[in-house]
Design goal:
The complex is a heterodimer of chains A (291) and B (278). By secondary structure, chain A is of the alpha/beta class. Chain A contains 11 helices and 11 strands. Chain A has helices spanning 15-25, 41-45, 73-77, 99-103, 141-158, 174-180, 194-209, 225-237, 251-257, 262-265, 270-285; strands at 2-7, 29-33, 48-55, 58-63, 109-114, 117-124, 127-134, 163-167, 185-190, 214-219, 241-246. In chain A, the strands form 2 sheets. In chain A, strands 3-6-7-2-8-1-9-10-11 form a 9-stranded mixed β-sheet, with helices on both faces. A two-stranded antiparallel ribbon of chain A has the order 4-5. In chain A, helix 8 (225-237) links the parallel strand 10 and strand 11 (241-246). In chain A, helix 1 packs across helix 11 and helix 5 (141-158) runs parallel beside helix 6 (174-180). Chain B has 278 residues and is α/β, with parallel strands linked by helices. A 9-stranded mixed β-sheet of chain B has the order 3-6-7-2-8-1-9-10-11, sandwiched between helices. A two-stranded antiparallel sheet of chain B has the order 4-5. In chain B, helix 1 packs across helix 11. The two termini of chain B are 14 Å apart. In chain B, helix 7 (189-204) links the parallel strand 9 and strand 10. Chain B is built from 11 helices and 11 strands. Classes of the chains: A alpha/beta (291), B alpha/beta (278). Chains A and B meet through helix 4, helix 6, helix 7 and helix 9 of A and helix 4, helix 6, helix 7 and helix 9 of B.
């Protein structure tokens, strides 16, 4: 079983549009939405949830008010400023470390479990999907990503799938690291803007750091052909394979508004054809006959 | 006044709004809190005056004092310490720097060492002061770098915070303490879905908010319907225009080339101020 992660560094370059199309085109693949704090893949793939799991990612300090002697030690030792002046725990700041529980002389503080989100196993018209929803404002998205990937892997083994397609979050921090570690290919989707180029380079450094073979795809390449050339040259000079160039096409947004992937909405469009070529290229590099 | 610019969905135009607004008002300080992928400096080409490393404390074990009792490992909620009968292993990238292990060690064998996770840059472009952070590639935790950036807030000035995308801890760390938050969205199903999550986070945090609709004209009208239903003010619309997209792609803030927008961004800031004082 092989795993492909679609990532970008910069947000909004088209990761989900491409991943959703891959999910439709690939035969017998499992898809995983690892953008757990702003998941959008379900908007295009309409999964039917078959199993829901509670995600307990971190703990939360709780102060037993009658026991509290207001000595201030917890406030002093908490490095996250998570205890307010009137000895209440600020759930947005508490990282559940437990330091307050050991410094409290009155044993008034305990760590409690908190449900930080939910993981789902679902069925779409094209196969199984693993996804999740981090509760708004929660931490530990990396752990939830790991759970989603674990679910996807189990599904793939059960269904005898040879490919897991992972939609990654933007950035390069913990949920992105959790999305790329140990995968077979990282497809970086970029756009021909100064920010796109800057963030592409950091995403490529991240893949290199974790020894993930990179591919690059330039989305909306015709918005700035000069910058597209710059990206292609940069990749060539650094021995990074180009997976493809996708043109700008307003049908992509139309498809989204209709809750469809571009390969379903406009299968003969230039975008749909290029997305198919990109998947073929990735599969052939992984020696898979998936499309 | 501190105004943060956030979004839920990535790539909706947060940095564009933050930079154009910063260029349109006076006495302003812009802090780029998207330390995973900071972009404001690409539009401002600032002069950097100071570069500082960002460190976090991580445990350092004195093996001579350690009796391998394992209390530190048991205490650590983040699995950052592994104790075997022969050895103690520290995983600095998992450590949240709470300092708990130093407190629970009965042999006082644990002290703290500093571990570099990023860089802080202080810069200026004309009268505009820019502070931004860069998380080192491979480091998972953005929050301590964001905290470092925010230490430089000068609240005697008009402070604009450019947030990372999403709705998890780096976003909370950024918007915490803001007087107002502008959520930038696009009028598409993805934009709307992620806007709803972001609105919920800000409501939970009791931060007043308004919406800027970027790329207006594409997609559908559902973002507007949602805002009307929720009584969330739409403060500004930026139309989808080839010229704006093209200027952005070259790293040019569009209000510099299209001066009629300066006034609109001024009005956006004034409106935020009015809503705060209300």
């Amino acid at each position: 079983m092989k795993q492909i992660t679609v990532l970008s560094g910069k947000g909004g370059t088209g990761k989900t549009t491409i991943t959703a199309s891959f999910a439709v085109l690939a035969k017998n693949a499992v898809v995983a939405d690892c953008d757990v704090d702003a998941p959008d893949l379900h908007i295009l793939l309409h999964p039917r949830i078959v199993k829901t799991q509670e995600f307990k990612g971190s703990k939360l300090a709780a102060i037993d008010e009658p026991k509290c002697v207001k000595c201030d030690l917890c406030r002093e030792k908490c490095r996250f400023d998570a205890i307010t002046e009137n000895f209440k725990v600020d759930p947005f700041s508490c990282e559940g470390c437990g330091v307050c529980t050991i410094v409290c002389p009155a044993n008034a503080i305990t760590l409690t479990e908190r449900i930080s989100g939910h993981a789902y196993i679902s069925k779409t018209r094209y196969g199984f999907m693993a996804h999740a929803m981090l509760s708004p404002g929660e931490a530990n998205s990396g752990k939830l990503v790991t759970l989603v990937r674990q679910n996807a892997k189990v599904l793939a083994e059960k269904e005898d799938s040879d490919l897991v397609i992972i939609d990654g979050p933007p950035g390069i921090g913990c949920p992105v690291i959790a999305s790329v570690t140990g995968v077979d290919v990282g497809l970086v989707v970029t756009e021909p803007t100064m920010s796109g180029i800057h963030d592409l380079k950091r995403a490529l450094q991240l893949l290199k750091h974790f020894n993930v073979p990179p591919f690059v795809c330039v989305n909306m390449y015709d918005v700035n052909r000069y910058n597209t050339e710059k990206i292609l040259r940069f990749c060539k000079e650094n021995g990074i394979q180009i997976a493809g160039r996708i043109p700008f096409n307003s049908e992509v947004t139309e498809a989204m508004v209709n809750g469809k992937t571009i390969v379903e909405y406009s299968p003969k469009s230039d975008v749909a054809k290029e997305v198919e070529n990109i998947l073929k290229k990735l599969c052939s590099s992984l020696k898979l006959g998936s499309v | 006044m501190i105004v943060s610019i956030a979004s839920g969905k990535g790539g909706t135009g947060k940095t564009s709004v933050a930079v154009n607004m910063a260029l349109s008002i006076r006495n302003v300080q812009l802090l780029d809190c998207d330390v995973e992928e900071p972009n404001a400096h690409l539009l401002l080409h600032p002069k950097i005056s100071r570069i500082e490393p960002v460190y976090v404390p991580v445990p350092f074990v004195n093996e001579k004092l350690c009796d391998h009792c394992g209390k530190c490992s048991k205490f650590c909620q983040y699995n950052a310490i592994f104790v075997s009968p022969e050895k103690v292993l520290i995983f600095p990238e998992l450590c949240h720097s709470c300092g708990g292990c130093t407190l629970v060690c009965p042999k006082k064998a644990i002290t703290e060492d500093k571990h570099k996770i990023g860089t802080l840059k202080l810069a200026s472009a004309g009268n505009l002061e820019l502070v931004y952070g860069e998380l080192d590639v491979g480091e998972p935790m953005a929050v301590p770098v964001i905290r470092e950036v925010k230490k430089h807030i000068d609240d005697s000035r008009n402070v604009i915070l450019d947030s990372p995308p999403g709705t998890s801890c780096p976003v909370i760390e950024t918007v915490k303490g803001s007087d107002f938050c502008i959520l930038v969205t696009e009028p598409t199903p993805f934009g709307l879905h992620d806007l709803k999550i972001a609105v919920q986070v800000l409501e939970d945090m009791k931060i007043p908010l308004g919406v800027v609709v970027n790329r207006a004209g594409i997609g559908d009208k559902k973002v507007y319907e949602y805002c009307e239903d929720k009584d969330v003010p739409v403060l500004l619309e930026i139309p989808y225009q080839r010229r704006i997209a093209e200027l952005y792609s070259r790293g040019v803030p569009f209000s510099l080339e299209m001066p009629e927008w300066k006034e609109k961004f001024q009005m956006l800031f004034d409106e935020a101020r009015r809503l705060v004082s209300k």
